[in-house]
Design brief:
With 174 residues, the chain is an all-beta fold. It has a domain at 9-126: Jelly Rolls (Sandwich). The protein is 0% helix and 43% strand. The protein has a six-stranded antiparallel beta sheet, with no helix packed on it. A hairpin with a 4-residue loop joins strand 11 (128-133) and strand 12 (138-143).
C-alpha cells in the first residue's frame, strides 16, 4: 500500500468531500482492495480514516493485531466473513466491529459475497506500533514521529529472534 504524502497537515483543509479523494488500488494475490485514504487529505493528527472496498473473493490483509493502535470498522455495503480472534462470523451493512489492541482483537475481512464489500476503517495513529501476524509468524514495526514523512517501518519473522547481546562487543574497555 503506497504512501506518498506531500506537505504537512497544517497545509491541508479541515474538511473534504469523499468525492475529492482519489481511490488507490493495490493487490497481492487474494489480498487486494481499493482504498480512500481520507485522513491524508485533511488535518487529522491522531485518527486514521480509510474507506476500503474489497472485490468478491478479496481479503483486506493478513490476519493480524496491533499492540498500540485501536481499530473500528463500520460496514457500508456488501457481505463477508470476519475472522476475529478465534471466531468467524458474517458481516453485512450496518455492522460495527471494534478491534482493541492485543491478541483478542486480531482480525481479517474476507468478501464472501458477489458484490463489493465496503467499510470505513477508523483507527488511532500511534507513533510507534507493533503488529503481529499469528498465521505467518511475522511482526511489523512502525515507528514514525508525528508529522514526519520518514521513520522506521519493517516486517520481520519472529523466528529470527536473537539474543539481546548478539553482535555486541562484550570486552571491558581498559
Amino acid at each position: 500500500m503506497p504512501f506518498n504524502d506531500p506537505g504537512t497537515k497544517a497545509d491541508k483543509p479541515y474538511k473534504i468531500n469523499l468525492a475529492d479523494v482519489p481511490w488507490e488500488s493495490w493487490g497481492h494475490g487474494r489480498f487486494e482492495s481499493d482504498d480512500l485514504y481520507v485522513d491524508r487529505h485533511v488535518r487529522s493528527e491522531r485518527i486514521s480514516l480509510i474507506v476500503t472496498r474489497l472485490p468478491p473473493g478479496g481479503v483486506n490483509c493478513p490476519f493480524h493485531f496491533h499492540h498500540k493502535s485501536e481499530e473500528l470498522f463500520y460496514i457500508l455495503e456488501g457481505t463477508g466473513t470476519l475472522r476475529y480472534g478465534t471466531e468467524e462470523s458474517e458481516v453485512r451493512a450496518g455492522d460495527v466491529v471494534a478491534c482493541p489492541p492485543g491478541p483478542a482483537g486480531a482480525h481479517q475481512f474476507v468478501n464472501t459475497g458477489t458484490e463489493p464489500l465496503s467499510y470505513l476503517a477508523i483507527s488511532t495513529e500511534e507513533e510507534v506500533d507493533l503488529c503481529e501476524y499469528p498465521d505467518s509468524g511475522k511482526v511489523a514495526i512502525h515507528a514514525v514521529p508525528r508529522g514526519a514523512q520518514a521513520g522506521f517501518r519493517g516486517v520481520f519473522k519472529q523466528a529470527a529472534k536473537v539474543d539481546y547481546f548478539e553482535g555486541e562487543d562484550a570486552t571491558v574497555p581498559g
